[in-house]
Amino acid sequence: MSDETPLLDELEKGPWPSYVTQIKRAAKKKKAAKDLLGIQELSYKDRVTHWKHGGIVGVTGYGSGVIGRYCDQPEKFPDAAQFHTMRINHPAGWFYNTKSLREICDTWEQYGSGLTNFHGSTGDIILLGTTTENLQPCFDALTEKGYDLGGSGSALRTITGCVGQARCEWSNFDTLNLVYDLTMEFQDEIHRPRWPYKFKIKASGCPNDCVAAIARADFTIIGTWRDSLRIDQTAIRNYVDNGFEIKTLVVDKCPSGALEWDDRTKELKLNAEDCVRCMHCINKMPKAIRPGTDCGATILVGGKAPIIKGAYLSWVLIPFIKVEPPYEEIKDLLRKIWDFWDENGRTRERLAELIERVGLKNFLKEIGIPPVPQMVYKPRANPYVYF
Amino acid sequence: MGRTDIGPPDYRDMLPPVIKKNYGKWKYHETIRPGVLRHVSESGDEVYTVRTGSPRLLSVDFIRDICDVADKYCDGYLRFTSRYNIEFMTDKKANVDALIEELKRLGLPVGGTGNAISNIVHTQGWIHCHSAATDASGLVKAIMDELYDYFTSMKLPAYVRIAVACCINMCGAVHCSDLAIVGVHRRPPKIDHEKVLAQCEIPTTIQSCPTGAIRRHPDPNVKSVVVREDLCMYCANCFTVCPAMPLADPEGDGVAIYAGGKVSNARKPPMFSRMVVPFLPNNPPRWPEVVNVIKKIVEVYASHAKKYERMGEWIERIGWEKFFKLTDIPFTEQHIDDFTHAVETYRTTTQFKW
User: Fold this and answer.
1) What is the mean pLDDT of residues B25-49?
2) Residues 276-315 of A with CB under 8 A from B
3) Which of A9, A10, B169, B234 is most buried by its number of CB atoms within 10 A?
């Protein structure tokens, strides 16, 4: 193999940090990383991928967490002929102490390519590229350091959540604790695929939804509150006195017209009943407006990317639920949904596609949740009704 | 053999002392300059967060470098965001400038806060994926080089979330981003009949096709399938269940661009990204055609949208017909939906602009 990578070298220019530089750095120590560079250069030349469809590889006792990957040019790139990925479940919120991060680095330098993703789309730490032979010893070494595999295939995927109450004043429940608790409760569901397809759970502490739970999770938990926004009128006046255009930038943008600015008394008035808790006013005046104190979450279901029947945003299932340990109500609901989906779902049918096929009405009946108007934008317009 | 089902480490062992102490007690925050947040607790404590971009694909030696920085300034802790940014937290204001200098020396851009373009969420592409129709890391690098100033400043009307998925499986779930770049195929699968026999389950393969384009091979002696090419829209679901049906093709593959999606509930509800450009060629290493369209859309948005208006909100207000006019992007037959939720997109009013 030639050592020259003229196409990739172009991607070391420019101000944004370069992944090519990262691969080259790993390649100084690891042959697998060097061959990865060669494979990537070849793809840039040929304009197609040089990875084959995965094979079934893994570690003892697990059905998920490892993605088998083989190069289609093994003679040319023997050191990356097998280049399997290990998905490692991240600590909730993606916080790390450096001792722990260094332990992952040492283990991966010993058993893998020395290349990682912090993090993959799934939220996992991605350890990129090792051989079949090294999978088990690498896994054993990682568990010694307190890490375990994440989900892959037709299993519960690694659960993710936003930073939450660790460093955000807007989180309406403890996202990190919920994520950790559910992860520990459902280890079997994460590690042993047995469902029609994948299932994702994501938790955002407020309706800003920083982890895109509504678009990316079959089971979406988004923090909200039932009482009124908290408004500090003195702090509001500080914003206005400093030139903040409260009328155009906040009041006029309130989606439900719940806010009013009294220019005479310099007071921001709220009709709490009309507030739909969108977060806009809070986002723009964080020192003056805060979420309410009767906090919990809205649970929505069905979010997913297009494969197969098109993309879905999650639908409201439970308008409000308290989110407090030991989270039994949420766990029971998940088990009911999984039972129904496992029983009725076709191969590679995600929850939203199943609900669309059988109808939301029947789904609600099966899992025992009564219909409420918050579940729909509007009632049906057609007269074709089953009684 | 090691232990199994131990789960991830407890997050409580990973929190910096100031975070642990003020957990659940944060009162407000402000962005004191691009890339630097100041959170204030009810207790009066403060934490400063310096956010940097990263290439996501990291070598272990680089991770050791950022650990050194965290050891020096952040009590030995750091965190990553869902967009692969790295956050360094310190309770000492005096540390902030030195921290930023150190991070710049490592080549890391400080920014990605407020009305900025944050890091691009993306998939593996040609680095690691068998079904990729384009590369992801290279596209991201090429686009972020061009949009770098938008990462390190906060001059846009609102933040712009960009995502890259290297095929329409969309592992990165790009379908609700302000700007989404998606790898697409344009050629039906090339069937290797011998491999089908060896590697594929025929009924599963037939059932996998959402448009019913896959049929049994007409010759009963050939245990394989055929594809009705007029029904194939290149989703590659068949390839996922049957490795003998690859779609990758250097001329057929390329990139589509979608715009106007969001996930936040702020103001307007979440919305899907919509097709803006149906196809641009794969032109590595720098994909100039793609970079130009992205840059053009960002610039038109930046100069036309009202303050705090996300891209999708701006487009809804002015109308898509106006969007195509302003951006000078041609509207084609591919823009008109003919899949599952198509009719919802057809106009049922005489209200529109010229």
Assistant:
1) 98
2) 277-280, 283-284, 286-287, 290, 304-311, 313
3) B169
CB atoms B237 and A308 under 8 Å: yes
Distances in Å between the Cα of A339 and the Cα atoms of A191, A299, A334, A348, B217 are 18, 18, 9, 16, 37
Domain with CATH 3.30.70.20 in chain A: 230-290
Which residues in chain A are closer than 8 Å to B168, comparing Cβ atoms?
306-307
Q: Which of B63, B89, B86, B95 is nearest to B76 (CA)?
A: B89
Dump pLDDT digits (tens) for A123-175. 999 999 999 999 999 999 999 999 999 999 999 999 999 999 999 999 999 99
Fold for the domain defined by A230-290: Alpha-Beta Plaits (3.30.70)
Cβ–Cβ contact A166 with B under 8 A:
yes
Q: What is the mean pLDDT of chain B?
A: 96
What dotted CATH number matches A18-144?
3.30.70.2500
**How far is the CA of B54 from the CAs of A115, A117, B85, B144, in angstroms?**
14, 10, 6, 11
Contact B135, B125 (CB under 8 A): yes
Which among A18, A82, A98 is the top mutation candidate for probing chain B, defined by the most B β-carbons within 10 Å of its own β-carbon?
Answer: A98
Looking at domain A160-226+294-367, its CATH superfamily turns out to be Sulfite Reductase Hemoprotein, domain 1 (3.30.413.10)
Residue B1 is predicted with a pLDDT of: 56
- By Cβ distance, the residue of A11, A176, A310 closest to B285 is A11
What interface predicted TM-score (ipTM) does this complex get?
0.97
Each residue of B231-285: pLDDT tens digit?
999 999 999 999 999 999 999 999 999 999 999 999 999 999 999 999 999 999 9
